[in-house]
Amino acid sequence: MKKCLLYLLPGLFLLGSCSNDGTKPEGEDTASKDSLGNTEATVETEETVSYTLPSPLQVAALFKKSGLKYLPGITHDAGSASKYSDKFKLAQNMGVYSSDMAYTVLNKQNNEAIKYLKTIREVAGQLNMGKVFDNGNLYERFNKNLDSEDSLRGIIAEMQMESDMLMAENDQKHLYGIIYSGAWIESMYIGAQVYNKNPESKIVPKLLEQMTILNNIISELKANEAKEPAITALLVDLTDLQNTFTAIPSVKAVMESEEIDFTKVEVKKEELNSLFSKIEAIRKKIINA
Amino acid sequence: MKRISLFLVLGIAGFFVLTGASLQTEEVCDAKGIKERAKDKLDPYKYDSGKLTKVTYKGKNQVKETEVPVFIGEKYRMVFNTEALTKPVVISVYTKDKETKDRKPLWTTKDKPAGEKLHVFEPDKRTLKYFVDYEVPAVTDSSFINKQECVVFMLGYK
């Protein structure tokens, strides 16, 4: 029996050590005691790159500056949220609805905007992010400030900030790229729809500039692929879109130049159509249950 | 005897599990206050994006990099709140990522007074990306090993 106990002890020690590994924060190593006396420090570079992504509100504001008009009926149905059951779909569509809300607010479609806000609040609750709306009574303030676009923009910006910080606090960082991918695709989809209705608008350079964000979205999603299996299929679609974009000769030329200026890029109609049809197909996959 | 041995084994197991737990990262980060004070410094810029970066001290130096995409021709303000950091973490903004040799520093907290905790930088380069590096110093004090603190970064646009 004594012998048996002696064998068990190292195993138990390992058990104790394993529980530490299981709870260590993402991307962090646990330093060993041996390193305490190490005065010649080395630089660690593994798993230390992260990304920020521009808010749907800023994207919508940039599009609006370039002449993006309001087209009724192109945004996603606010009443569709109940058909999404898994967290991946919910997160992606929370992003979609965020872009739709930004688009409607900037175009003074406040009745529509309230519907999106309500849906976002419900979806946020299902994703354990309901606290976003608790801080600063954002939902109530939004409803009370419908007459002031500037106030609404301020409240949406605050919501964005609360979401960004909460995901980091709650160790839900993997949701960041998923939510954002939905938001970005929806913004691009809206931009493409408006362009199709009015090909003379000056929105093309802004759409092309927005395409450069895709690289960051892909990197952010790749970093979290192990946590959410559904990311893999999304990455296939987004990488295909990215490859289509970077293969456009005029885009390739501007990206390699010192002074990047998308207003000087001339993209052929069929090249734009190819990008837009891929965006539309990805958006369809996102909003379908 | 068998029962005593079983209690002994369970007791030892409990001890190691608890010891393991005590070796886990000790987190000290009052995110709410930190982000509020950073947000105040953004004004009159509107919040665009941000990052709460958790820093875990180790026996080695570390570099954590955040890639920040921006849009050409837009005006931005970067705000960093380092009040929750007890060690001198140097924050720098670069033109390119840390793997690129010819990158240029645009701004750094390196020579800022130690007591200055809220830092503001308004970049004006025509670029699509900025790179924010956090240089986390190595610690030799065992009480700091695995201690986790945080720094808040916010990007505002006009």
If you had to describe this structure to a student in words, what would you say it looks like?
- The complex is a heterodimer of chains A (289) and B (158).
- With 289 residues, chain A is mostly helical.
- Chain A has helices spanning 2-22, 56-65, 87-106, 110-126, 131-134, 138-144, 149-169, 173-197, 204-211, 214-223, 231-246, 249-256, 269-287, and strands at residues 43-44, 49-51.
- The relative contact order of chain A is 0.12.
- Residues 15-23 of chain B have low confidence and may be disordered.
- Chain B is built from 2 helices and 9 strands.
- Chains A and B meet through helix 1, strand 1, strand 2, helix 2 and helix 7 of A and helix 1, helix 2, strand 2, strand 3 and strand 9 of B.
- Strand 2 (49-51) of chain A pairs parallel with strand 3 of chain B.
> Kindly, what is the distance between the CA atoms of the first and last residues of chain B, rounded to a whole number of angstroms?
76 Å
The counted number of beta strands of chain B is 9
Q: Average pLDDT of chain B, to the nearest integer?
A: 87
The proportion of strand residues of chain B reads 35-45%
Structural class of chain A: mainly alpha
Q: Which secondary-structure class do the elements of chain B indicate?
A: alpha+beta
The main β sheet of chain A shows up as: none
Topology of chain A as a string of helices (H) and strands (E):
HEEHHHHHHHHHHHH
Could you describe the largest sheet of chain B, including whether it forms a barrel? 5 strands, mixed
Number of strands of chain A: 2
Helicity range of chain A:
55-70%
Distance between the termini of chain A: 59 Å
Instruction: Tell me which protein chains meet in the greatest interface and how many residues each side has.
Output: A-B, 64 and 65 residues
Global morphology of chain B: globular
- Radius of gyration computed on alpha carbons of chain B: 21 Å
Sequence stretches where pLDDT stays below 50 over 5 or more residues of chain A: 1-41, 43-47
